[in-house]
Design a protein that fits this description.
7 helices, binds heme C
Length: 155
């Protein structure tokens, strides 16, 4: 993996280990806690980089095309990682996951795909360098986050 050095600076070691093991769909977790920590770490990083773009969209930070592209690249990678870590019986404890994730699996999967589709559009907008398009796409991506959180995450 070419970007491993960069990842090491960004990502907790446990997450990297999981990432390398689970490049495919089947993540392996020895304990429920490992799965919860893994998915929360990926979601946390996704949120952090989404927030950086948010600051640009709001005008709190100057627009830098390369920086936004780099943020979207992290989001794209992170956006695929949390889902296999929603293993059965992993709600409760340190997790805010709602039981509906498992009782409405098809809806949950649709919500992941919806978000990944929006992130792909955000990536295209970032590459185009069109700040107006980035703003629009940032808004619809944020909606896709919110709609899943409303349905599947406890407050
Ligand atoms: C398909 C559903 C879904 C989508 C889409 C989704 N999330 Fe989440 N998110 C969750 C769930 C469920 C949790 C709670 C996970 C847990 O605690 O086990 C969560 C937790 C989080 C957290 C808290 C992580 C932590 O440190 O505990 C952040 C930040 C976050 N999401 C950001 C985002 C952002 C930003 C997006 C959109 C780019 C997004 N999420 C899209 C379901 C989703």
């Amino acid at each position: 993996m070419k970007n491993l050095a960069l990842l090491r600076r960004l990502v907790p070691a446990t997450l990297i280990a999981g990432l390398l093991v689970s490049a495919g769909a089947q993540a392996q977790f020895r304990k429920v806690d490992d799965a919860v920590e893994y998915r929360k770490a990926a979601l946390h990083l996704m949120g952090a980089h989404f927030g950086r773009i948010g600051a640009v969209v709001k005008g709190d930070k100057p627009y830098d095309k390369a920086a936004v592209e780099a943020d979207v690249a992290v989001i794209e990678m992170m956006s695929k990682l949390p889902w296999p870590a929603f293993i059965p019986n992993s709600a409760g404890g340190h997790s805010k996951a709602k039981p509906e994730i498992w009782s409405q699996q098809a809806e949950f999967k649709t919500a992941t795909e919806k978000m990944e589709g929006e992130v792909a559009k955000l990536s295209a907008a970032a590459k185009s360098g069109d700040l107006a398009a980035i703003k629009v796409s940032f808004g619809s991506t944020g909606q896709s986050c919110k709609s899943c959180h409303d349905n599947f995450r406890n407050r």
